[in-house]
Amino acid sequence: MKFEDLLLEIGGFGRFQILILFILCLPRINLPMHFLLHNFLAATPSHRCAIPHQEAFVNLTVEEVLLISIPREPDGTFRSCEMFSQPQFQLLLNSSLQPENDSIIQPCQQGWVYDHSQFTSTISTQWDLVCEQRGLNQATATFFFIGVTMGAVIFGYLSDRFGRKAMLLLSLVCSVVFGMLSAASVSYSMLAITRTLTGVALSGVSLIVLPLGMEWVDIQHRTLTGILTSIFWSVGNMLLAMVAYLVRDWHWLLVAVTGPCLLSIVCLWWVPESARWLIANGKVKQAHRHLLRCARINGRKDFTVSPEEDMPLIMYAQRIVLQWEYKKPGGSYSYISLFRTPVLRKISLCSGAVWFGVAFSYYGMSMNLTGFGLNMYLSQFVFGIIEIPAKVIMYVLVNRVGRRQSQAWALILTGLCIGANVIIPKPFTSLRSVVAIMGKGFSEAAFTTVFLYTSELYPTVLRQNGMGYTSFVARLGGALAPLVFLLDEVWRSLPEVTYCGVAVCCGSVAFLLPETLNVRLPEGIEDIE
């Protein structure tokens, strides 16, 4: 007797599962609002050196003061990070004669003046993270994803050890606490620390939401579940654009994107612990109670008529527990367990490579795609919309051609699109844009599939450990992706060639993984081996 047999008896996709999935989609919407927040949180508006007041400027207009105080770029715009050491009054007579002596040019001495027409305040304007300090501005995103990487390891283990729901609740509570502390930061150091801890907490949400929903759904609806939760990520992308457009101050923006976690915490009250996890850990009575609740809500009232009619469910659950206890080599599992047995070791190595390739190419394309010439809010909104068709198409493909083929070809085609733009001449801008957008779609399709595929590859007793390990590898790929742009000093097209090569190679590795279409979710390691 397998858990899927229990689901068939109590309803594998009824009102109970729909309610759970709807509630779990709430924190899923909130994730991209933090993961992509850096675009708005650390936005750097136009700026110039602050010019100290002098009596000689009394009769001059603002434009004339700028003209004699700040050097210009070749295109005629004022430089952002430099000023003249002394006013160049001769420029009032002929502004086209820019001084050629660099010795009279110096870095900004009195701070900066920012254009506040688009942003009331960002962390760049708050702590002058521009010019020589612009590296610290970009580092805030790095700190956040370092936290996400750490959280992938921590919560992957804890959710297998202490349960999905408890760790999801802990993640959400910590996300609220550290998110609000980030909004109240009084120094850059405080912001860096709290954003890192926010990344740790949100990593737990990212890891747990999909498997918790998946473990309550039957085989026929697993794909729909995975695609549905993924689409809500895109909805979060679009909502981020709207929230950022309405809230232009970084303190209140952090409050606005963190606040919805409170709603998720309240709604989580109605989400039960995974019955699969409860049975796998010997908590049969709790699992039995949740299974009966599922049957009742789904209209299978014949299971609750009398205690005697409940006995089959108890016997099924106890039989599964006895089987798992008999098969468990040590009684508990860790990340080392992912590599102890031959088949599981192969799955872990191959899935790790696929995740690395997916994240590496996804963030490489996202950082290299220049957009559509729209303002940043509209661009963010459009990028969210673009992801949805890719996910809907993958919903059809993974059910028709299978997970393995869909995963492999989505990632390979991502690489080929990146490589095609190396060959297409620069003047063909329209064609290059179309190919780049297609690549973005394939990349998003690969990311959508890998979440679903991985959750089906690992057994219940190791599923969160497996998701934690692969998420950790993915974050490494995401962290390395921007560094590859530095390779353009060696050869201008080397970054694109690198993204292409990694995507194609890692996509080919996906062919080595087993197919999971219409296959029961494995419960123990024996089911894998």
UniProtKB/TrEMBL annotation:
<dbReference type="GO" id="GO:0008514">
    <property type="term" value="F:organic anion transmembrane transporter activity"/>
</dbReference>
<feature type="transmembrane region" description="Helical">
    <location>
        <begin position="192"/>
        <end position="212"/>
    </location>
</feature>
<dbReference type="GO" id="GO:0006811">
    <property type="term" value="P:monoatomic ion transport"/>
</dbReference>
<protein>
    <recommendedName>
        <fullName>Solute carrier family 22 member 7</fullName>
    </recommendedName>
</protein>
<feature type="transmembrane region" description="Helical">
    <location>
        <begin position="166"/>
        <end position="186"/>
    </location>
</feature>
<dbReference type="GO" id="GO:0016323">
    <property type="term" value="C:basolateral plasma membrane"/>
</dbReference>
<feature type="transmembrane region" description="Helical">
    <location>
        <begin position="347"/>
        <end position="365"/>
    </location>
</feature>
<dbReference type="InterPro" id="IPR036259">
    <property type="entry name" value="MFS_trans_sf"/>
</dbReference>
<feature type="domain" description="Major facilitator superfamily (MFS) profile">
    <location>
        <begin position="87"/>
        <end position="517"/>
    </location>
</feature>
<feature type="transmembrane region" description="Helical">
    <location>
        <begin position="224"/>
        <end position="246"/>
    </location>
</feature>
<dbReference type="GO" id="GO:0015132">
    <property type="term" value="F:prostaglandin transmembrane transporter activity"/>
</dbReference>
<keyword id="KW-0472">Membrane</keyword>
<feature type="transmembrane region" description="Helical">
    <location>
        <begin position="409"/>
        <end position="428"/>
    </location>
</feature>
<keyword id="KW-0812">Transmembrane</keyword>
<dbReference type="InterPro" id="IPR020846">
    <property type="entry name" value="MFS_dom"/>
</dbReference>
<feature type="transmembrane region" description="Helical">
    <location>
        <begin position="252"/>
        <end position="271"/>
    </location>
</feature>
<feature type="transmembrane region" description="Helical">
    <location>
        <begin position="377"/>
        <end position="397"/>
    </location>
</feature>
<feature type="transmembrane region" description="Helical">
    <location>
        <begin position="139"/>
        <end position="159"/>
    </location>
</feature>
<comment type="similarity">
    <text>Belongs to the major facilitator (TC 2.A.1) superfamily. Organic cation transporter (TC 2.A.1.19) family.</text>
</comment>
<keyword id="KW-1003">Cell membrane</keyword>
<keyword id="KW-0406">Ion transport</keyword>
<dbReference type="Pfam" id="PF00083">
    <property type="entry name" value="Sugar_tr"/>
</dbReference>
<keyword id="KW-0813">Transport</keyword>
<dbReference type="InterPro" id="IPR005828">
    <property type="entry name" value="MFS_sugar_transport-like"/>
</dbReference>
<dbReference type="GO" id="GO:0016324">
    <property type="term" value="C:apical plasma membrane"/>
</dbReference>
<keyword id="KW-1133">Transmembrane helix</keyword>
